[in-house]
C-alpha cells in the first residue's frame, strides 16, 4: 500500500487550502482536538496545525524556514547582514586552516557576542522583517499541516477531504482503531496519511499507517511485531545553519556523535 507523496505533490494540496469547506474542516477539527485532549492552547486561525501537535515538530520546522528565509532576504537587501556576529570563515583563514583552533576562537567570540545582547537585538530585528513572509512560506511546507498526536481528529476530516479532492475517482474509507486513524482506498492499494508520511520509505509510510490502524493489540505488541529501525536523529543547528545526524553509541561511555548531513 502506497501513501500519497505529500512532499513532492504538496502544490496539489496548497491550491485547495483556501477553499471555504477546507478552512471550516481545519477549524472544527483542531477545536475538537483541543477540547477533547484538554490542550492548554486556544484555537487561533493564524496558527498552523503543527503548532498544536505533540513534540517539537513545529520548532524544527520553524527554525529551518526562518534561516532559509533570512538568507534570502539578506540576499535581496531586505535584511541587513549582521556585521557584529563573528565570521567563522575569516577566523579559519587567519588560523591558516587549523579548524580546531578556529572553532575554539569562534566559540569564545560567539559567546561574547550573545552575552553582549547584540544577538538578541539582531534576531528581534530579523523577526520583524520576516513577519510578512513567514505565513506564506509555512503554507508551502507540508510539515506545517501535520497535527502530531491528533490522527483521530485530523486524518478522518482534513485527510479524507483532501484525498477526495486529489483522487476523486477513488472510493476512500476511514480505517481506525484505538492506536491510529488513517484513510485508505476501497481496493486497499492507496493510503492518504500525512501524519505517518515518510519521504524516505519506498511506500511513503503507507503500509505502516494501514498496519497501525488495523492492529488489534497494544502499542507494545505492535512495536514488537512491526519494529521501526530508527534513523539517526536529524538535528538542526540554528547557529551554524546546518543539519546534523545524532548517533548514540551504546557502550559504557554513552557517547553522542554529531555528523553533518
Keywords:
261 residues; alpha+beta; 3 domains; three-stranded antiparallel sheet; two-stranded parallel ribbon; 9 helices; 46% helix
Question: How do you describe this structure in short?
Answer:
With 261 residues, this protein is α+β, with helices and mostly antiparallel strands.
Fraction of helical residues: 40-55%
Report the C-alpha radius of gyration, rounded: 22 Å
Parts with pLDDT < 50 across at least 5 consecutive residues: 241-261
Mean pLDDT: 86
CA distance, first residue to last residue: 30 Å
Q: Per DSSP, what share of the residues sits in E-state strands of 2 or more residues?
A: 5-15%
Count of individual domains: 3
- How large is the count of helical segments? 9
Strand count: 7
What is the approximate shape?
elongated
Order of helices and strands: EHHHHHHHEEEHHEEE
Based on secondary structure, the structural category is: alpha+beta
Largest sheet: 3 strands, antiparallel
Biggest sheet: strand arrangement: 5-6-7
Could you explain how this protein is built, in words?
This protein is of the alpha+beta class. It folds into three domains: 2-53 and 146-225, no CATH class; 57-139, no CATH class; 232-261, no CATH class. Helices cover 46% and strands 13% of the residues. The protein contains nine helices and seven strands. It has helices at 10-14, 20-36, 57-75, 88-94, 99-115, 118-139, 151-166, 206-214, 219-225, and strands at 2-3, 172-176, 181-185, 190-191, 233-237, 242-249, 255-260. The strands form three sheets. Strands 5-6-7 form a three-stranded antiparallel β-sheet. A two-stranded parallel sheet has the order 1-4. It has a two-stranded antiparallel sheet with strand order 2-3. Helix 3 crosses helix 6 (118-139). The two termini are 30 Å apart. The model is unreliable at 241-261 (pLDDT under 50).
Amino acid at each position: 500500500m502506497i501513501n500519497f507523496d505529500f512532499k513532492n505533490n504538496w502544490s496539489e494540496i496548497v491550491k485547495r487550502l483556501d477553499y471555504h469547506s477546507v478552512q471550516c474542516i481545519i477549524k472544527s477539527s483542531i477545536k475538537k482536538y483541543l477540547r477533547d485532549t484538554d490542550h492548554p492552547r486556544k484555537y487561533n486561525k493564524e496558527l498552523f496545525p503543527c503548532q498544536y501537535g505533540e513534540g517539537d515538530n513545529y520548532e524544527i520546522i520553524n527554525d529551518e524556514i526562518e534561516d532559509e528565509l533570512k538568507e534570502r532576504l539578506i540576499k535581496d537587501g531586505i535584511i541587513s547582514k549582521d556585521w557584529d556576529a563573528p565570521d567563522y570563515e575569516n577566523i579559519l583563514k587567519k588560523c591558516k586552516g587549523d579548524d580546531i583552533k578556529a572553532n575554539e576562537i569562534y566559540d569564545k567570540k560567539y559567546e561574547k557576542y550573545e552575552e553582549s545582547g547584540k544577538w538578541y537585538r539582531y534576531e528581534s530585528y530579523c523577526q520583524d522583517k520576516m513577519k510578512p513572509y513567514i505565513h506564506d512560506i509555512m503554507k508551502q511546507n507540508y510539515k506545517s499541516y501535520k497535527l502530531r498526536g491528533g490522527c483521530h481528529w485530523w486524518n478522518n476530516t482534513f485527510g479524507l477531504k483532501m484525498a477526495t479532492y486529489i483522487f476523486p475517482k477513488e472510493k476512500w474509507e476511514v480505517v481506525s482503531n484505538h492506536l491510529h486513524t488513517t484513510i485508505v482506498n476501497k481496493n486497499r492499494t492507496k493510503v492518504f496519511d500525512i501524519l505517518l508520511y515518510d519521504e524516505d520509505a519506498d511506500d511513503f509510510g503507507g503500509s505502516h499507517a494501514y498496519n497501525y490502524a488495523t492492529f488489534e493489540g497494544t502499542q507494545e505488541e505492535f512495536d514488537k511485531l512491526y519494529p521501526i529501525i530508527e534513523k539517526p536523529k536529524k538535528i538542526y543547528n540554528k547557529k551554524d545553519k546546518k543539519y546534523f545526524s545524532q548517533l548514540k553509541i551504546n557502550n559504557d561511555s554513552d557517547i553522542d556523535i554529531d555528523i553533518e548531513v
